[in-house]
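ESCALATION

Customer reports they have been waiting on this structure for their group meeting. Please prioritize. Original submission:
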Amino acid sequence: MEKIIILDFGSQTTQLIGRRLRELNMYCEIVPYNKFPAEDKSVIGVILSGSPFSVNDPEAFKPDLSAIRGKYPILGICYGAQYLAYSSGGKVKKGDSREYGRALLTPTDKAGRLMKNISGNSQVWMSHGDTITVIPEHFTIIANTKDVPCAAYRIEGEKTYAVQFHPEVFHTEIGMTVLENFLEICNAKKDWTPANFIESTVQRLKEQLGNDKVILALSGGVDSSVSAVLLNKAIGKNLTCIFVDNGLLRKNEFEKVLKDYAHLGLNVLGIDAKDYFYQALSGVKEPEKKRKIIGKGFIDIFDREAQKLENIKWLAQGTIYPDIIESLSITGTTIKSHHNVGGLPEKMNLKLVEPLRLLFKDEVRKVGRELGMKEHLIKRHPFPGPGLGVRILGDITPEKVRILQEADDIFIQGLRDWNLYDDVWQAGVVLLPVQSVGVMGDERTYENAVALRAVTSMDAMTADWAHLPYDFLAKISNEIINKVRGVNRVVYDISSKPPATIEWE
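Update from on-call: job pushed to the front of the queue and completed.
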């Protein structure tokens, strides 16, 4: 299958480039700036992402691009544009003021193919402190703005183009047109679809796994569910699904999930490991340590169960792209560990297979529908791998789990009853490590506070708090306080991502 390679220089919006290309039915992969797959014959074009660095910084990423210049069509974005100019002898200097926000783009009379169907005064989004002040020989300016004389350029004799704005972000109104034009320059077929993904993935899994046996880490969520169905299509009876009750699931989740999978024809083993996890987490308060313990616990359980089965060689997980991206950025900064990609022991007895590791969440849902899965499984909200362990701030106890499960059940059921569930990307309750004074009847109370969290999003890379009706929030707050022993205060989280994350830990 044809692909576009996106070289990641550490921009926060690199993943959005990938999402936009997928929306145009173009398969793409994001790789580190210095890891271009030179041997991959399916590559038809290259995009250079933005970066938090200036090209003039000593620590800036400065790869040798001679192997791709002139061989592939190239689109440089922001830092990518500046680095192409800088590495060819141009000058990039810090602007008098940071160029950030909306600007109006006007193509020049030498605009060429990248600016096809783009009129003057088109809104674009700028986000850079440096600007290109001198372009090298054989570079031609193809667009400008009021404050940026070189907003876009092309290189004569190459299919190399560059823009100093961000076509991938929502605020750039002509962003998709720019990306479509670049794909046209690449002569792209744009044939990536859920059906094609299923066909190619099933074939790849058959080749990768052969007659080996696999156990899958089933969570009940859409990611692991779609992974299970894909693997089942590829290897059938050689797949055994393991669903672990780590004591941190939602109320009655264990029984509901096992029932949900009856129609998929999967071989599912349910493992009660509540005591194991509670003991391992006893007294642990630090969020990252909790994640590592839970991640290691899952692997230990799977490894133990694999020993009871014959000739298991692979562990399958529902890891998706945002899991990988958030776990380790290109700059090496850990945002948070996901149990799918963090907490793995150095020596693991099972090899890892992750059918969805290059998909965003909305793409996983499209694949699930193409596979014929029931809608209630497809529309299920994401649930963190560590479960309620990252929604209990501080140490974890069975009593705290009970309180949170009860409050969470009221909130989620309320969303369903009010027909709000499908309007929300993810929702849950957080148990806070504080107690507050309250009055119930004639008695003074000193009990727990919980926070309701509900967000809207496309792929969890960014998210906004859901503007739920006041009447709904009032009813849920009143019901939780009246019915959940141990809670006397409910608050609503109105933080967006960024700067906050969706989960509190």
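Sent to customer with the following note: Residues 331-347 have pLDDT under 50 and may be disordered.
Escalation resolved.
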